[in-house]
């Protein structure tokens, strides 16, 4: 816990730490032209796609069968079509284009809301072609996100505390002269990202599907780390050694970039990303290794802030069970569903900072073992304090929301193929603000001891928890495809 009288000193200390870390990354990394060309906060990009066979490309995308696990682990090279693009007035010809995503793409294909995410690969058909140093660009449709800001705000929080995160900004996208939608343009985590953040001598990168628990019986146990390699510049044995050191709680700082992992944990705790390691899922992060040390890189937060709830799945199953038994009463089921929803939101906003997972803690041994070290636990608390007191309550969140709102409020949700409409935007953003304000209150309370910071303590003192009865995170967007 952080005593109140130390708050100012801790904030000063941690801000210095964050500034030093960011400066270090800048010194080690390499400036890329695309930082200003595409990702200047507050300046809306204009991306015009020209493609003669768009109708065929669209039809093939919408009728393809998708298996989410096959898509995640497939080593088959992605298929691209060719298009021409004009980005902020600059023409780039013969660019590779493909649809992006798994669940969002499948959902778009199974509904009339057919706004799917895209990937532009500038060097796919023209060797060494780039857009201001950038080889690829992701265009996210924000299908499940009525705020259109969940990724953008989360990545901004990461950068605020000095954690390497993808650059992003918005784009007004048109296809063959017709407006197609407001998209979030995101820097992929790949060679360009690594070069920008870590310099030309960057390490290895894995898009892992693993809980990071140590497996002592052989490398085959790490199939969904080592087989998910994106960049291989060193032996995988360094990753295994790092996981072993955390398992044994020995020499952890020699094998883990402690600051980077604790910053990652702090952000995860603030935004409660159930579609990742906070929840049951073991994907949506990158594992980076360099010089024998591992760290984690954040990725994909469109279902954070309560956008993916266990109660949705549980109540859907409950409905199917009642219907099969012939006992389904819609009114009673709706009441039961609403109660389950309210209880889960209360839990997520107050998720204990010292046990910040909804799964069995043995499934998150990597993080829990780090937190068992008093020095590391204090640093993690310090990063949480900065996010809660400075970023959220100190005005940085409001500044970020204003920048992005000014940028997109005239166009967001105005496309015909958008599930969330223009009038949904402002209420959704306000719920995002409220969620983080309540989350910051809970975090600060847990750090100063007025709210228990572990599961058992909260179970014994539920009256101390922050009230969330006026929150309705469903307004921000949710996994509506099966509800």
Structural key phrases:
alpha+beta; globular; 4-stranded antiparallel beta sheet; 7-stranded mixed barrel; 483 residues
Commentary on this structure:
With 483 residues, this protein is α+β, with helices and mostly antiparallel strands. The protein has a domain at 32-193. Helix content is 44%, strand content 14%. It is built from 18 helices and 11 strands. Strands 1-2-3-4-5-7-6 form a 7-stranded mixed beta barrel. Strand 2 and strand 3 (90-100) form a beta hairpin. Helix 11 (258-271) packs across helix 15 and helix 15 (374-392) packs across helix 17. The two termini are 40 Å apart.
Distance between the termini: 40 Å
**Structural class, please?**
alpha+beta
Query: What is the overall pLDDT average?
Result: 89
| Helix fraction by DSSP (H/I, runs of at least 4) | 40-55%
Using the alpha-carbon principal axes, give the shape.
globular
Please indicate the percent range of residues in DSSP E strands (runs of 2 or more). 5-15%
